[in-house]
Amino acid sequence: MSLLSIGILLGSLPVGSSQFPRACANSDSLLRKECCPPWPGDGSPCGELSGRGSCKDIILSDAPLGPQFPFSGVDDREDWPVVFYNRTCQCSGNFMGFNCGGCKFNFVGPNCTEKRLQVRRDIFRLSAREKYQFLAYLNLAKHTTSRDFVIATGTYAQMNNGSNPMFQSINMYDLFVWMHYYVSRDTLLGGTDVWRDIDFAHEAPGFLPWHRVFLLMWEHEIQKITGNENFTIPYWDWRDAQDCDICTDEYMGGRHPSNPNLLSPASFFASWQVICSKSEEYNSRQELCNGTSEGPILRNPGNHDKGRTPRLPSSADVEFCLSLTQYEAGTMDKMANFSFRNTLEGFANPSTAISNLSQSSLHNALHIYMNGSMSQVQGSANDPIFILHHAFVDSIFEQWLRRHQPLREVYPAANAPIGHNREYYMVPFIPLYRNGEFFVPSRELGYDYEYLINPGNYIYDFSTLSFPGVSS
Questions:
Q1: Distances 239 to 135, 242, 275, 362, 373 between C-alpha atoms, Å
Q2: How many CB atoms within 10 Å of residue 220?
Q3: Cα separation of 2 and 20, whole Å?
Q4: Cα separations (Å) of 153 from 22, 86, 199, 289, 292?
Q5: 392-404 burial by CB neighbour count: b if 16+ within 10 A, else e?
Q6: C-alpha span between 294 and 456 (Å, rounded)
Q7: Cα-based angle 103, 104, 105 (whole degrees, multiple of 5)
Q8: By C-alpha distance, which of 240, 267, 243 is closest to 255?
Q9: What CA–CA distance (Å, rounded) separates 184 from 204?
């Protein structure tokens, strides 16, 4: 499939679920604090006339939080999303979406009744055509304006409490870059003051469920804008890698011949511009990233601080991490010892599970190793390697879930850092998802990993598996 033929599909395809729905990015919705757009299928809010959902008050968890964030009422992300909306669509059955116009991740069909299981594959096991298709889809996302979603370019206070909306259109790839920035940005306290010890998607229990939703949504959007419902995100198995073997022009971009910090001119991604990479500038101006282009992708793999990250993760590191029986422990932040989450995230030693903030291992090691756009948390999703990396991290999470088979109650219900309790709604997603809802095996969410499929232990109807192919 060519880029041109992919693009032709866009005229008739809806776009799915993520940040601020365009239909609610107006003063009327903000002042009413209601985001219940009509479903086009019957014109009623949330498709209520067709039984798809209804507009309801948001019920927040009142479980106590950890001590890491000593403020209240200073950040729009607190008690997400009620600063903006306290009524949203709550969908019935297998329906999902900001207007209940879509299906849950593991269902398809006009009435969301057909269950599906898709398989994410190793990027090095894709055929040449499948690999080209993946790169073309990334490029398409970078050059396709999100039809249904916009980003906030100001805080709710800067929007004059809703009477002066500050939203902007953005391409689909950068929409997700912005969401990753927004969830991890510092709290603006006024003047030049900020609070840095806050992150609604990292350094705490929600790290793995949040990124699981992030990848599912990204995968879902690609399926919609391309019309290829069989597309799945590939993963990069970096265990025991000696260098960045996907950093070639054939895959994610080689090194520029004259500037080692840039991508090769022959790369798919050499012309891409990054956004949301200048956190200190936003802080000093007390502003949000507004999606303005800020320069090319930076990457210089291997020329990083070897004292902090001596090597890429090994199979032994992963296996030790998987042996840990506690999902979360202690302070439930980056100081946690014997925590599977903290060890996989990379704040704890991968051979002792003791927190060591002077080192970056496992997940964090890959970000530091890339020595560029990937190495700064808020802007790390600018580099498309982010997707391949986090898909493999998610597969390790999946291995742990299968090995230890925890009840959902294992995920902390209270006293985690703000944003991370089990019933907290994930920032900044609309429709709403709770952290605990994604502390479940991936097959319950409609996907699996090629290297984890074991017919001896798990029964699959292979006639229903969808593999990413190339549409003719």
A1: 23, 9, 30, 9, 22
A2: 21
A3: 31
A4: 13, 20, 19, 6, 10
A5: bbbbbbbbbbbee
A6: 50
A7: 115
A8: 267
A9: 12
Kindly report, residue by residue over 109-128, the tens digit of the pLDDT.
Answer: 999 999 999 999 999 999 99
Buried b (16+ CB within 10 A) or exposed e, 268-304: bbbebebbbbbbeebbeebebbbbeebebbbbbbeeb
Tokens of 249: 């022009």
Q: What is the pLDDT of residue 14?
A: 34
Q: What are the residues whose beta carbons fall under 8 Å from the beta carbon of 95, sequence distance 6 or more?
A: 47, 52, 53, 101, 102, 103, 104, 112
Helix (H), strand (E), coil (C) string for 2-49 = CHHHHHHHHHHCCCCCECEEHHHCCHHHHHHCEECCECCCCCCECCHH
* Residue 15 banded pLDDT, cuts 50, 70, 90: very low
Q: CA-CA distances (angstroms) from residue 233 to 133, 137, 447?
A: 11, 11, 10
Q: How many other CB atoms sit within 10 Å of the CB of residue 5?
A: 12
DSSP tag of 85: -
Distance separating the N- and C-terminal Cα atoms of the chain: 6
Let me know: does 175 contact 220? Beta carbons within 8 Å.
no
Q: What is the pLDDT of residue 304?
A: 95
Contact 327, 410 (CB under 8 A): yes
- Torsion from C-alpha of 74, 76, 81, 84, nearest 10 degrees: 110
The answer to whether 371 touches 299, Cβ cutoff 8 Å, is yes
Rounded alpha-carbon distances, angstroms, from residue 8 to 126, 142, 143, 148: 25, 16, 13, 18
In DSSP terms, which residues pair with 120 in a beta bridge?
A: 449
Rounded Cα distance, 227 and 217, in Å: 15
> By the 8 A CB rule, do 363 and 312 touch?
no
For residues 54 and 58, what is the distance between their CA atoms, to the nearest angstrom?
12
Are 341 and 327 in contact by the 8 Å Cβ rule? The answer is yes
Q: 110: which 2 tokens?
A: 């006009």
Other beta carbons within 10 angstroms of residue 131's beta carbon come to 16
| Cis peptide bond N-terminal to 234, omega within 30 | no
Q: In whole angstroms, what is the distance from residue 177 CA to residue 305 CA?
A: 25
Residue with tokens 């209804």: 54
Residue given tokens 């879509």 in the structure block: 102
Please name the helix (run of DSSP H) or strand (run of DSSP E) that holds residue 195, with its range, or none. strand 193-195
In the predicted model, is pLDDT for residue 96 greater than 90?
yes
Cα–Cα separations (whole angstroms), residue 321 to 363, 382, 453: 11, 28, 20
